Every structure is written in structure tokens, then in C-alpha cells.
Structures
1.
Amino acid sequence: MTIRAVPLGIGHYLPDRIVPNSYFETLIDTSDEWIRTRSGIKRRHFAAEDQTTSELATNAARAALDNAGMGPDDLDAIIVATSTPDLTFPSVGTMVQANLGMTQGFAYDVQAVCAGFIFALCNANAMIISGQARRVMVIGAETFSRIMDWTDRSTCVLFGDGAGALILGAEDGAGTPQDRGILATDMHSDGRHREMLYVDGGVSSTGTVGKLRMQGNPLFRQAVEKLASTADAALVRAGLTADDVAWIVPHQANIRIIQGTAKKMGVGMDRVILTVQDHGNTSAASIPLAMSVGAADGRIKRGDLLLSEAIGGGLAWGSVALRW
Ligand code: UT7
């Protein structure tokens, strides 16, 4: 018998304000056509001025609890993946815990930028397998609109705000690739590439929040290569191949990265959950948002093999093979 971390419920939240590409045409030297063809993005959501990451995360958490038919006291732990917390501390996780009225268990944040949700899933999986926790909610939540340089056309058109939450629970599996739940994980980082994607401020350096800086083109080239290879590693570890994948649920940074990775894996785009056109790049929130959208519209069904992969600042990248 093998303990597996099995999905029990999923939900998401997007702020009300939808910002079409045309909005940026009035702000900077860009066009709807450039943004669509280079990134696949048509629109994104921006949080209201008084809306924090913890509020987005709490709304997604409530949706996931409803979906699972569970209450906050059924959870042992909450892990929030975010690079845009409300405050330097305490964690967004503990804020969500308080908002839900959950007084037992524990909550904390994981920061691996766009790979944050993958890293948080790996954390939750390890805790469930080791018996440290039985039910863990993993949330990806971001307000990247707060760290944009609105004069930098190469970045400010790409990102959006949102949150998604997945509840995992311990269940007995047979120890085969046919089990439901997380079947394999793969994590990497390489700090030599920090200049490719970083924020130019922080607590112990400038004492400011800073703005996002990105070398888009070199990062693009790293992304396809590393995403295809981490996806392959997770599948091999799970004893599966790309033919077994029902849905790639990728990090949604750029449709061309998603297409390039799927092509390298030999998976058709008809087996990819795409939300980049509607959400933009929501960093750690993008995978649980896409998973939630795909589950809600009926594409992702019980027993489907999902492969999620992500890369972001660090660089940090990784993947998870998960049977729904
Ligand atoms: O989530 C974390 C991971 N993030 C990523 O993996 C993002 C990876 N990178 C990308 O998605 C793409 O590199 C971008 C979408 C950021 C850029 O696409 P690209 O095809 O790599 O374009 P580029 O950076 O090579 O720029 C091409 C041209 C440049 O003009 P010149 O030098 O050729 O005259 C840019 O100045 O496009 C120009 N440009 C723009 N033009 C209109 C850059 N941003 C814009 C813009 N509107 N918003």
C-alpha cells in the first residue's frame, strides 16, 4: 500500500476588473496585435486598489472548500505559493487561515515565483506521504500588477492577478501509475540565472518593494528546453509516457512557450488547458487557475493524468504528474 496525495477539491478567484490589451495602447508604445501574437494574451484581471493577495487567496480557498464539501477545520495545513504577499510578514498562509476561521493546524508561504505552485505541491505531497498532514490546501495567489513598471512595455503587458486553490488528501493507493493523486514530482533551480527575471527591490537590499525586470528572450529559450525536460523526468519517475497524459496544465506565461513545450513532448495542443489568453501570466496562480477552469468546465475528469510544469525567477522550475 502506498499513501497518495489525492485531489479532493479545487477552486479559483479572479478580480472583477478585466483589462483588455487595448488599455495598454493608450499607456505605452504597443499594440493589441503585438501582445496577442508574441504572448497569446488578450486580457488579464487586475486586483482593485484595496484588494490584497490574501483576499484573492481566501476567495479561492473558500471556492475549493465548497467544491470539496469540506470546512476549514477539516484541513491540517495551508501552503500559499506567492511572490507578492500583503506584507513582508506574517505569511499570506496565516492570513488565509485566520480569514477562514481555522485555528488548528499550520500555514506558511513558499516563494519560488512562477514555479511556486509546483514547489508547494511537492511540499504538500511530501507532508502527506510522510504522515505529517492528511489534508493540505495548496494555494497559488498573486497580485503581480503591484510590481509592474508601467513604463516598461516588455513586461507590463504580460502579467495579471488571481488565485487558485487545490485541496489534497491522503488516500491509500496500490503503488501503481494507475493510482489517483500525485504520482511523481521533479524540482530544479539554478541561481546563476537570476538576472533573467527578478524584482529590483527588497527588505534587506533597497528597503523598497521594487519592480519586475525580465530578459524575456533569453528566458524564453531556457523555458521550452527546461520545461520539456522536467516534464519528461516526472513522467519517467511515474512510470508513464507523454502518450498517457490526458491534459498538460502548464504555467501560463506565453502561448508560444506552451506550444513549444507540448511539441517537444509530442502532445497535441488539443490536450493542453490554456488560460493565458484570459488571465495573462499570474505567476504562481496560473496552474491552479487553469486546473480549476479545466475541472469546472468538465474537461478534466476523474482518472485523467495531468502533467503540470512551470519555470520562473531564480531560475526555478519543476513539474508534477497527478492523476485526477
Ligand atoms: O513566468 C515566468 C517565465 N516568463 C517567461 O518565460 C517569459 C519568457 N519570454 C517571453 O514570453 C517573450 O520573450 C516575450 C513575450 C517577453 C517577448 O517576446 P519575444 O518574441 O522574445 O520578443 P523580444 O523580446 O525579442 O522583442 C521583440 C521586439 C523588440 O523590438 P526590436 O528590438 O526588435 O526593435 C522589443 O522592443 O518587440 C519589442 N517589444 C514590444 N513591441 C510592442 C517588446 N515589448 C513590446 C510591446 N509592444 N509590449
Note: The CA atoms of residues 84 and 153 lie 21 Å apart.
2.
Amino acid sequence: MITLKSPREIETMAAAGRIVAETLALVRRHVRPGVSTEELDRLAEDFIRSHPGARPSFKGLYDFPATLCTSINAEVVHGIPSAKRILREGDLLSVDVGVWLDGLHADSAATFAVGRVGADAERLLHVTQEALAAGVAQARAGNHVGDIGHAVQQVAEAAGYSVVRELVGHGIGSSFHEEPQVPNYGKPKRGPRLMPGMTIAIEPMVNLGGPEIRTLDDRWTVVTQDGSLSAHFEHTVAVLPDGGPPRILTTAD
Ligand code: MG
Ligand code: MG
């Protein structure tokens, strides 16, 4: 079932989204060679809990043990922060974070360069952000979920990359994962119709090589099958009544 949110609920999600955006900005400022992903996780958890009424969405969700998902290089998503995972010059670090505030969630992700990265990594970051922007632009009342996925897929594949298919974006609200699923591929005018008050997380996962993934023995970390680099960017957005572009809720602006 797709739930529509009231203007007041959307304001609460925007307040959660602001904390999410500020958490990502805080993490970004601490990303450098020599830092462990566990240190970043602790910073993020302390920052989120410093806001009255707020807590990390991920910790305990399906028994995930941490505040952040930290996924390095060929890791696509769901990497578990660890004192043993030390960032190195040239790594790509995907950071995914959710915040629950007063009963509602917001969800965002960004991929950061650790120090100087190669040209192929820089281009992957740029294209994945462009793919997210193209998908967000389609989240208008009257469009369909397939319009979002189609736009994301077009940008990624035009650059010679592939999109992960087994993992998708999602509705979000009082539950972290709600209907509808929002794939990063699709056909225009297919799938559920977008309506004002829908809140969805759009999250392209783009691989430099093939689209295939597998899950490591820790039962969380998802990696590219071919070992190629992967990037992940995500925003939570609200579909607006006027048919225009959506409101991005996971921003500090
Ligand atoms: Mg996320
Ligand atoms: Mg998400």
C-alpha cells in the first residue's frame, strides 16, 4: 500500500532529512586516509542522537548493527563500519544514512573520494550524481515510477556503466521501506502513478562494470560480481501537488 503524507508529515520528514544531510556533511569532513569506518559511524551516531527526538534509522533495522552503511570501492551498499576498515588514498567510500524523527524517516546516501582518486572514479561519481538528478526530476505528480528508473538508467548506460537491478529505491515514511519499489531501470509510463504526498527514496547504484552483484559471507555487504567500482547517491523526495519537480527532503538548504 502506498501511503500519502500530509503537509505536516512532510515537514517532519524534511526536519529528519536536514539531520541526514548534516550528518553526511559531517562525515564528509572527516573522510581522509587513515580514518576507520567505525570512527565515522560513531561521529554520525553521536551527532544524530544530539537532536531531541532523533535516532539512527538503520541501527537495529533488520538487525543491522550500525548507524551508517559504509561501502568501499567494489562494495555497492550495506557495508558494516569496522575499526579494521581503514580508508586509503584513492578509495571511494559510499555512506548511507537514515534518521528517524518524531515517527518518520528520511534516507540519503553519497559517495566520497578519499584523497585523490583516479579519473575513472571521478567520472563514475559525476555520472551517478547526474543519474540521481535525472531520476529526481521525473518525480512529478502524473508521472510513473518507471519514468524515474528510465531516466536513471539512460544517464548511467549512456556513460557506459550499468545499474544494479536487485536493489531498488523505495517509498519511505513511518516505515523505512514502504511501497512502491523504485527501480533504477524501467520504461516510461510504467509502474505506479506518482501522486502528491508520496515520499520516495531515489537511489541509483551504478557500477563501472557489469550490473551483477553478490553478498559477502557477513550477509550484509553487497559487492560487484566483477570487482568493478560502484557508486551510490540517494535523496528522499516529496511529490508535490503542482506537477513540478519534487521537494528534496534530505538537504540542509
Ligand atoms: Mg539509504
Ligand atoms: Mg534507501
Note: The chain has four helices and 15 strands.
